[in-house]
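Our preliminary data section would be incomplete without showing what the modeling component actually yields. Below, a chain of 94 amino acids is followed by its predicted structure, encoded as tokens that our downstream tools consume directly.
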Amino acid sequence: MARDTIRVEVAYGEPERQKIVALTMYAGATLAEAVERSGLVRFFPHLKEAALDYGIFGTVRPANTILADGDRVEIYRPLIADPREMRRLRAKNR
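Predicted structure:
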């Protein structure tokens, strides 16, 4: 009996470069499995040591989230600065 499959994308970006990998996975696959299978660590080796957050379509999700067909998995970098604080500083300096 054939197992059902789903198609997902895994995306990661930095200011200088971005990468999106399309995958076909078995139904029931998790977000963490998709990130691992994407192989993005080959392109961005520093991801291996980083404490990263993951999400689907801009919403942070736990690594054990079951994926649905068509999901776009995103790997989020740690923020260097709080965006709200940066906006306040820019507004103050105008």
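The radius of gyration is 16 Å. The chain has a mean pLDDT of 89. Preliminary results of this kind motivate Aim 1 of the renewal.
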